[in-house]
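Running co-folding for zinc ion.
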Amino acid sequence: MASVKTRLTLPETLVRHCIKTLGIGFRGNVKQLPGTPDIVIRGQKKAIFVHGCFWHGHKGCSRATRPETNRPFWDKKIDGNIARDRRSVRELKKIGWSVLVVWQCQTKNEAALTTRLQRFIERGMTMGARDKLRAYFTSHIGEVLTTQQLRKVAGISEYGRRIRELRDEEGFQIKTHVDRADLKPGEYILESLEQKPVVSRTISPQLRNEILERNGFTCQHCGAGPGDTDPFNPHRKVRLHIDHIVPISQGGTDDKDNLRVLCSACNQGRANVQPPSETALNIIAKIRKLPKSEQKEIYEILKKKFETKT
Ligand SMILES: [Zn+2]
Ligand SMILES: [Zn+2]
Protein backbone atom coordinates (compact mmCIF):
# COMPACT_ATOMS: atom_id res chain seq x y z
CA MET A 1 0.00 0.00 0.00
CA ALA A 2 1.29 3.42 -0.90
CA SER A 3 2.04 5.65 2.03
CA VAL A 4 -0.37 8.53 2.47
CA LYS A 5 1.33 11.89 2.56
CA THR A 6 -0.33 13.81 5.33
CA ARG A 7 2.21 16.38 6.47
CA LEU A 8 3.08 19.38 4.36
CA THR A 9 6.59 20.77 4.19
CA LEU A 10 7.02 24.40 5.22
CA PRO A 11 7.61 25.62 1.62
CA GLU A 12 4.43 23.81 0.51
CA THR A 13 2.46 25.44 3.30
CA LEU A 14 3.77 28.86 2.24
CA VAL A 15 2.86 28.33 -1.41
CA ARG A 16 -0.64 27.14 -0.48
CA HIS A 17 -1.07 30.18 1.75
CA CYS A 18 -0.15 32.54 -1.13
CA ILE A 19 -2.60 30.89 -3.52
CA LYS A 20 -5.33 31.08 -0.90
CA THR A 21 -4.75 34.82 -0.46
CA LEU A 22 -5.25 35.16 -4.23
CA GLY A 23 -8.68 33.62 -3.74
CA ILE A 24 -7.93 30.77 -6.13
CA GLY A 25 -9.16 27.24 -5.46
CA PHE A 26 -6.73 24.33 -5.83
CA ARG A 27 -6.22 20.67 -5.02
CA GLY A 28 -3.18 19.18 -3.35
CA ASN A 29 -1.18 16.02 -4.19
CA VAL A 30 -3.03 14.92 -7.28
CA LYS A 31 -1.91 11.32 -7.77
CA GLN A 32 -3.76 10.89 -11.07
CA LEU A 33 -1.31 13.29 -12.77
CA PRO A 34 2.31 12.50 -13.71
CA GLY A 35 4.68 13.14 -10.80
CA THR A 36 1.84 13.81 -8.32
CA PRO A 37 1.95 17.63 -8.49
CA ASP A 38 1.85 19.33 -5.07
CA ILE A 39 -0.75 21.84 -6.20
CA VAL A 40 -3.17 21.67 -9.11
CA ILE A 41 -5.55 24.28 -10.49
CA ARG A 42 -7.85 22.03 -12.46
CA GLY A 43 -9.85 24.51 -14.54
CA GLN A 44 -6.70 26.24 -15.79
CA LYS A 45 -4.69 23.03 -16.29
CA LYS A 46 -1.88 24.39 -14.11
CA ALA A 47 0.35 22.21 -11.97
CA ILE A 48 2.82 23.43 -9.34
CA PHE A 49 5.68 21.48 -7.80
CA VAL A 50 7.28 22.71 -4.60
CA HIS A 51 10.73 21.16 -4.40
CA GLY A 52 13.19 20.96 -1.55
CA CYS A 53 16.49 22.29 -2.85
CA PHE A 54 18.59 19.44 -1.44
CA TRP A 55 16.52 16.39 -2.37
CA HIS A 56 15.57 17.63 -5.81
CA GLY A 57 19.03 19.02 -6.62
CA HIS A 58 18.39 22.76 -7.16
CA LYS A 59 21.19 23.62 -9.59
CA GLY A 60 23.62 26.25 -8.28
CA CYS A 61 21.78 26.59 -4.95
CA SER A 62 23.83 26.57 -1.73
CA ARG A 63 21.23 24.36 -0.06
CA ALA A 64 21.83 21.68 -2.68
CA THR A 65 25.45 20.97 -1.75
CA ARG A 66 25.91 17.21 -1.59
CA PRO A 67 27.76 15.62 1.36
CA GLU A 68 31.31 14.37 0.68
CA THR A 69 30.83 11.20 2.70
CA ASN A 70 28.95 8.38 1.05
CA ARG A 71 28.87 10.46 -2.15
CA PRO A 72 27.76 7.69 -4.57
CA PHE A 73 24.67 7.09 -2.43
CA TRP A 74 23.62 10.77 -2.53
CA ASP A 75 24.40 11.12 -6.24
CA LYS A 76 22.24 8.14 -7.14
CA LYS A 77 19.38 9.28 -4.96
CA ILE A 78 19.35 12.95 -6.00
CA ASP A 79 20.14 12.41 -9.68
CA GLY A 80 17.28 9.91 -9.71
CA ASN A 81 14.93 12.56 -8.32
CA ILE A 82 16.10 15.10 -10.91
CA ALA A 83 15.47 12.66 -13.76
CA ARG A 84 12.03 11.79 -12.43
CA ASP A 85 11.10 15.47 -12.00
CA ARG A 86 12.09 16.19 -15.62
CA ARG A 87 10.03 13.27 -16.84
CA SER A 88 6.97 14.44 -14.89
CA VAL A 89 7.18 17.94 -16.37
CA ARG A 90 7.55 16.52 -19.87
CA GLU A 91 4.55 14.22 -19.47
CA LEU A 92 2.36 16.96 -18.01
CA LYS A 93 3.20 19.31 -20.87
CA LYS A 94 2.45 16.57 -23.37
CA ILE A 95 -1.13 16.36 -22.07
CA GLY A 96 -1.57 20.13 -22.22
CA TRP A 97 -0.68 21.24 -18.70
CA SER A 98 1.44 24.25 -17.69
CA VAL A 99 3.99 23.53 -14.98
CA LEU A 100 5.67 25.78 -12.42
CA VAL A 101 8.48 24.61 -10.16
CA VAL A 102 8.86 26.57 -6.93
CA TRP A 103 12.10 25.89 -5.08
CA GLN A 104 12.26 25.92 -1.31
CA CYS A 105 14.76 28.82 -1.40
CA GLN A 106 12.25 30.89 -3.43
CA THR A 107 9.55 30.88 -0.75
CA LYS A 108 11.16 33.32 1.67
CA ASN A 109 9.70 36.52 0.22
CA GLU A 110 5.93 36.16 0.42
CA ALA A 111 5.10 39.17 -1.77
CA ALA A 112 7.44 38.08 -4.55
CA LEU A 113 6.18 34.51 -4.34
CA THR A 114 2.54 35.63 -4.52
CA THR A 115 3.22 37.77 -7.60
CA ARG A 116 5.02 34.90 -9.29
CA LEU A 117 2.21 32.44 -8.53
CA GLN A 118 -0.43 34.93 -9.67
CA ARG A 119 1.35 35.51 -12.99
CA PHE A 120 1.64 31.79 -13.57
CA ILE A 121 -1.96 31.02 -12.68
CA GLU A 122 -3.52 33.95 -14.54
CA ARG A 123 -1.47 33.55 -17.70
CA GLY A 124 -3.87 32.77 -20.56
CA MET A 125 -6.80 32.81 -18.16
CA THR A 126 -10.15 33.88 -19.52
CA MET A 127 -11.09 36.91 -17.45
CA GLY A 128 -14.62 37.68 -16.36
CA ALA A 129 -16.26 41.06 -16.97
CA ARG A 130 -15.36 42.33 -13.50
CA ASP A 131 -11.69 41.33 -13.90
CA LYS A 132 -11.53 43.07 -17.26
CA LEU A 133 -13.06 46.25 -15.84
CA ARG A 134 -10.76 46.21 -12.81
CA ALA A 135 -7.74 45.83 -15.08
CA TYR A 136 -9.00 48.62 -17.35
CA PHE A 137 -9.76 51.07 -14.55
CA THR A 138 -6.51 50.42 -12.69
CA SER A 139 -4.47 50.99 -15.84
CA HIS A 140 -6.31 54.28 -16.56
CA ILE A 141 -6.16 55.98 -13.17
CA GLY A 142 -7.29 59.61 -13.21
CA GLU A 143 -8.62 59.36 -16.76
CA VAL A 144 -12.24 59.97 -17.66
CA LEU A 145 -13.64 56.75 -19.11
CA THR A 146 -16.82 56.72 -21.13
CA THR A 147 -19.67 54.25 -21.21
CA GLN A 148 -18.68 53.38 -24.78
CA GLN A 149 -15.17 52.38 -23.69
CA LEU A 150 -16.38 50.38 -20.70
CA ARG A 151 -19.03 48.59 -22.72
CA LYS A 152 -16.38 47.52 -25.17
CA VAL A 153 -14.27 46.18 -22.30
CA ALA A 154 -16.95 44.36 -20.34
CA GLY A 155 -19.94 43.84 -22.61
CA ILE A 156 -23.12 45.90 -22.86
CA SER A 157 -25.22 44.01 -20.35
CA GLU A 158 -22.48 43.56 -17.77
CA TYR A 159 -20.66 46.80 -17.20
CA GLY A 160 -23.10 48.67 -14.95
CA ARG A 161 -23.49 45.92 -12.39
CA ARG A 162 -19.77 45.09 -12.44
CA ILE A 163 -18.77 48.71 -11.81
CA ARG A 164 -21.07 48.72 -8.79
CA GLU A 165 -19.40 45.55 -7.54
CA LEU A 166 -15.97 47.13 -7.90
CA ARG A 167 -17.21 50.10 -5.87
CA ASP A 168 -19.35 48.39 -3.27
CA GLU A 169 -17.61 45.05 -2.83
CA GLU A 170 -13.99 45.90 -3.56
CA GLY A 171 -14.02 49.52 -2.35
CA PHE A 172 -12.60 51.12 -5.51
CA GLN A 173 -13.32 54.86 -5.63
CA ILE A 174 -14.94 54.97 -9.06
CA LYS A 175 -16.60 58.37 -9.37
CA THR A 176 -19.50 59.42 -11.62
CA HIS A 177 -21.40 62.65 -12.32
CA VAL A 178 -23.24 62.02 -9.05
CA ASP A 179 -19.97 62.47 -7.15
CA ARG A 180 -18.20 65.05 -9.28
CA ALA A 181 -19.70 68.07 -11.02
CA ASP A 182 -17.08 67.99 -13.79
CA LEU A 183 -18.25 64.57 -15.00
CA LYS A 184 -21.09 64.12 -17.47
CA PRO A 185 -23.60 61.29 -17.16
CA GLY A 186 -22.03 58.11 -18.51
CA GLU A 187 -18.51 59.15 -17.54
CA TYR A 188 -16.47 57.35 -14.91
CA ILE A 189 -13.14 57.98 -13.26
CA LEU A 190 -11.00 55.94 -10.87
CA GLU A 191 -9.06 58.49 -8.86
CA SER A 192 -6.47 56.24 -7.22
CA LEU A 193 -5.58 52.63 -6.50
CA GLU A 194 -6.79 53.02 -2.94
CA GLN A 195 -9.50 50.55 -1.90
CA LYS A 196 -11.67 51.82 0.96
CA PRO A 197 -12.77 49.20 3.46
CA VAL A 198 -16.09 47.65 2.54
CA VAL A 199 -18.88 47.30 5.06
CA SER A 200 -21.17 44.29 4.86
CA ARG A 201 -24.08 44.91 2.50
CA THR A 202 -26.56 42.65 4.18
CA ILE A 203 -29.87 44.31 4.91
CA SER A 204 -32.24 42.32 7.08
CA PRO A 205 -35.51 41.14 5.48
CA GLN A 206 -37.40 43.27 8.03
CA LEU A 207 -35.53 46.43 7.04
CA ARG A 208 -35.97 45.55 3.38
CA ASN A 209 -39.73 45.24 3.79
CA GLU A 210 -39.87 48.46 5.75
CA ILE A 211 -38.10 50.38 2.99
CA LEU A 212 -40.24 48.75 0.28
CA GLU A 213 -43.41 49.72 2.12
CA ARG A 214 -42.19 53.23 2.87
CA ASN A 215 -41.40 53.77 -0.83
CA GLY A 216 -44.72 52.25 -1.91
CA PHE A 217 -43.02 49.37 -3.79
CA THR A 218 -41.94 51.78 -6.52
CA CYS A 219 -38.57 52.73 -7.92
CA GLN A 220 -37.72 56.14 -6.48
CA HIS A 221 -35.90 57.08 -9.66
CA CYS A 222 -38.21 56.13 -12.51
CA GLY A 223 -41.34 55.12 -10.61
CA ALA A 224 -41.55 51.58 -11.95
CA GLY A 225 -43.35 49.00 -9.83
CA PRO A 226 -42.76 45.25 -9.51
CA GLY A 227 -44.07 43.28 -12.48
CA ASP A 228 -44.05 46.36 -14.74
CA THR A 229 -42.14 46.03 -17.96
CA ASP A 230 -38.58 47.26 -17.52
CA PRO A 231 -38.66 50.75 -19.11
CA PHE A 232 -35.21 50.16 -20.58
CA ASN A 233 -35.69 46.59 -21.75
CA PRO A 234 -39.18 45.59 -22.95
CA HIS A 235 -38.28 41.89 -22.69
CA ARG A 236 -37.79 42.06 -18.95
CA LYS A 237 -39.94 42.62 -15.91
CA VAL A 238 -38.91 45.20 -13.33
CA ARG A 239 -37.23 43.93 -10.17
CA LEU A 240 -36.91 46.12 -7.12
CA HIS A 241 -33.71 46.55 -5.12
CA ILE A 242 -32.79 48.35 -1.93
CA ASP A 243 -30.21 50.98 -2.89
CA HIS A 244 -27.77 52.95 -0.76
CA ILE A 245 -28.22 56.65 -1.58
CA VAL A 246 -24.65 57.37 -0.47
CA PRO A 247 -22.76 54.25 -1.63
CA ILE A 248 -21.19 52.15 1.10
CA SER A 249 -17.86 52.56 -0.67
CA GLN A 250 -18.14 56.29 0.03
CA GLY A 251 -19.05 56.02 3.67
CA GLY A 252 -22.80 55.41 3.30
CA THR A 253 -24.49 53.32 5.99
CA ASP A 254 -27.43 50.91 6.27
CA ASP A 255 -29.33 53.67 8.04
CA LYS A 256 -32.99 53.97 6.94
CA ASP A 257 -32.39 57.53 5.74
CA ASN A 258 -29.70 56.24 3.39
CA LEU A 259 -31.87 53.53 1.83
CA ARG A 260 -34.37 53.71 -1.01
CA VAL A 261 -36.07 51.45 -3.51
CA LEU A 262 -34.69 51.35 -7.04
CA CYS A 263 -35.61 49.11 -9.95
CA SER A 264 -32.97 46.87 -11.48
CA ALA A 265 -32.47 49.27 -14.40
CA CYS A 266 -31.94 52.36 -12.24
CA ASN A 267 -29.92 50.35 -9.75
CA GLN A 268 -27.41 49.52 -12.45
CA GLY A 269 -27.09 53.13 -13.47
CA ARG A 270 -28.47 52.55 -16.93
CA ALA A 271 -30.99 55.31 -16.43
CA ASN A 272 -28.17 57.86 -16.48
CA VAL A 273 -27.14 56.79 -19.92
CA GLN A 274 -30.39 56.25 -21.78
CA PRO A 275 -33.29 58.18 -20.25
CA PRO A 276 -36.69 56.60 -20.87
CA SER A 277 -39.05 58.10 -23.38
CA GLU A 278 -42.38 59.63 -22.39
CA THR A 279 -44.48 56.56 -23.04
CA ALA A 280 -47.75 56.10 -21.19
CA LEU A 281 -46.07 53.54 -18.96
CA ASN A 282 -43.36 55.97 -17.93
CA ILE A 283 -45.85 58.74 -17.27
CA ILE A 284 -47.88 56.44 -15.04
CA ALA A 285 -44.68 55.49 -13.28
CA LYS A 286 -43.93 59.16 -12.65
CA ILE A 287 -47.40 59.74 -11.27
CA ARG A 288 -46.89 56.86 -8.86
CA LYS A 289 -43.99 58.70 -7.29
CA LEU A 290 -46.11 61.74 -6.45
CA PRO A 291 -47.73 62.29 -3.07
CA LYS A 292 -51.30 61.00 -2.65
CA SER A 293 -52.81 64.50 -2.82
CA GLU A 294 -51.24 65.23 -6.21
CA GLN A 295 -52.21 61.80 -7.53
CA LYS A 296 -55.79 62.60 -6.56
CA GLU A 297 -55.57 65.92 -8.37
CA ILE A 298 -54.43 64.19 -11.55
CA TYR A 299 -57.18 61.65 -11.16
CA GLU A 300 -59.75 64.45 -10.95
CA ILE A 301 -58.30 66.13 -14.05
CA LEU A 302 -58.38 62.91 -16.04
CA LYS A 303 -61.84 62.04 -14.81
CA LYS A 304 -63.14 65.43 -15.89
CA LYS A 305 -61.47 65.09 -19.28
CA PHE A 306 -62.79 61.63 -20.07
CA GLU A 307 -66.15 61.73 -18.33
CA THR A 308 -68.94 61.18 -20.83
CA LYS A 309 -70.95 64.32 -21.06
CA THR A 310 -74.65 63.87 -20.65
ZN1 LIG B 1 17.37 26.46 -3.85
ZN1 LIG C 1 -36.19 52.71 -11.92
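Result summary
The mean pLDDT is 84.
Residues 219, 221-222, 224, 262-263, 265-266 surround zinc ion (ligand 2) (CB under 6 Å).
Job closed.
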